Amino acid sequence: MSAGSGLWAAEDARTLYDRYLAAYKNYQEAVARNAPEAEVKALAAAFNQARAAYEGAVATGESAPAVVDDWATNDEVALPTPNGAGATESAPVPEATTSAPDKMPPALSSTLKDLWSDKGPKIADKAIKTLERFAAAHATTVYGAQARYEIAKAHEYLRGDTAAAVKVLTEVAADPNAGKYARLAQDRLRYLEATRQYVQWKVTLDQRRDAMEAAYASYRKTSWLAIPVKAFRWTGYVGKLLSFQRALNDFEAFELKYESIAAPYVPPVDVVFNLFPGTRGARDDHAVVRLIYDNNQAWYARWKILSEAKTSIDLQYFIVEDDIFGMALCGLLLRKAKAGLKIRFMMDARGTKGFTRKLMGQDFIQELVTYPNVEVKTFNPIHQDLGTAIFDLRLIMASNHDKIIVVDGEYSIIGGRNVSSHYYVNPEDMPDCYRDCDVLIRSQAVAQQLAAAFEEEFTPLKQYSITKDLWGNIDIMSRELEAAVTTMDQYIRGRGVYQPAKADRRTSKALEEFNAELKQYKSMTGFEQAELLGGAHTAPVKIIDKHSLYGPRNDIADQLIRFIDGSRREIVIQNPYVVLTERAEAALKRAARRGVRILIHTNSPASTDSLATQAMFYADWKRILKEIPTCRIFTYYGKRKLHAKNFVFDGKIGIVGTYNMDYLSQDVNSEVVAAIKSTAFARELRNEILGDIARSKEYKIAVDADGQVTAVFGPDDLPGKKMWLMKALSKLTFLKKII
């Protein structure tokens, strides 16, 4: 695809801005390390020269992006620089994005403010008519052209009518009185043509995916007794699979270029949020949402909504360990199954090895499926894809990474936590526990969105249903499950462990193990004092979902790129596994060119639980700091491990979920996140992350006159176990896409 020259005409100015930022950073570093006066003066002169060159480009109209940032949005949110770990002055913001626009007429300004506010979709038709009247009354002025330009944006974003947008933009582009809006309209027309191609690519991918899935269904439904027919249909499936893979590879190359073209047209983050329809279109502008970082509180919240469930429970988890937490959860589900609740439960075959094993492990789960109101599935067992793994190794790696609870169609919990002691025990009782995060949400609309996300992964053919034994369950495990739920419930209420007067040998042995584990967690006794929605916010919430490999939905990556491109001031990323994909890195570089401050909080070798992802980050971190000059990297370094996966954009949008900053989350695994539009919620989330940053170390580099990068402080200063292996793996960067 060929992008229009107008979209790329500003590359020279962008290059000058990159030099301007680099010179600024070099000057700052020299001052910070008390460099000799002559060196500081030389760097100051270089900085002033680079700034003059950039400002000269701005003055001649060559600056990027070509589109004026003229969105009428809410007031800016004050975002102080983090000071917990050696804060420094933020990088300069390019003049093109900070200079005040010409004063527009109040009638136009007021209409645009309403149009791009939360009520925009509801008043779009009325606002368009108002703008049309304004444009007619000011037909020979630049403000008339601006009104028509905004009409085109409203057609595109709020009405989904690209044809109407193209018609209006074509008129503006040909108007001799339109001034700068004639050029903007021309550039936007080229962007809309690229968007048309993007949409066509999506249609092509959907068609090839449908053909592939139909071929797979035909193969699966053929009995092994008809081996020739089954082999023939397998061959047909492989052909459709390869056809889809070729189209997907071509699309991904196009997508990277398209996002670069589209970036200047992405609105501010609050408008990006408004424009995203949410999973299945459901939305709630008044959802009650509580942020939960405390591990004990996270378990209390789950225990309360599950214990009080009345009609239905949906659960999806990547990991469910067979410790006291996993056993108590299954015991609680068994109680609810006996009470007649509709229960659907799915675990991942790779993450959950104990409960999903056919020998012994499934015995506990089979206690649940003896009830007709219960369905339990294993996501994508490895045997399902062994025959096609030679064509794409990721087929046997694809996992359901979702962590979802939906209760009674009203209460929901999603976030980074799996089901295991490390996620729910506080650090005073377990120093190496995870630092993780969830959101508890009370909203029927949000529960509906999450139920849709659940169903889209629960129903496909590649999921394996766990069923009871043909002649009934040989081993009866219900007594052990009942003992687990009873002792957990009693202990967290501060009443000590459960010690029955009489029990069979196997139950007694299991209970002894459960109680020994619980007694270690001395701070986990405050369930009855916990407030389910204490400190909650009322805010618009939307669920953003992503299917596993080859599924049709990949909303999370698309929306994160738009949030990054829509950020004007600050991007905060907290994530345990940072292996930047091409798309994410390109978007962060664009943000840096706009002068957006970027904070990344992640693990160091000393705190990580993933040697492979840390190895890839080890290979990249110096280059990231050099090529994204407004970025700062902070890392945990103690016994505690970071596992939270959170984002804050411009202090307005907070995102909490399961999505890692790596290729597996972008391309392979299913993921789910909640986006919350609330300055109060975003402030709370940001403050939690800044608190973690204050307990972390900052990675720093130095860049010499030849552009060579050396580490001032980095992962080598925070070593973990098997550093030699991590460094060896860091050379194998071709493995990035499967780590």
UniProtKB/TrEMBL annotation:
Residues 396-423, 638-665 form the PLD phosphodiesterase domain. Transmembrane segments: none annotated. InterPro entries: PLD-like_dom (IPR025202), PLipase_D/transphosphatidylase (IPR001736), TPR-like_helical_dom_sf (IPR011990). GO terms for biological process: cardiolipin biosynthetic process. SMART domains: PLDc (SM00155). GO terms for molecular function: phosphatidyltransferase activity. SUPFAM superfamilies: Phospholipase D/nuclease. Residues 76-111 are annotated as: Disordered. This is PLD phosphodiesterase domain-containing protein.
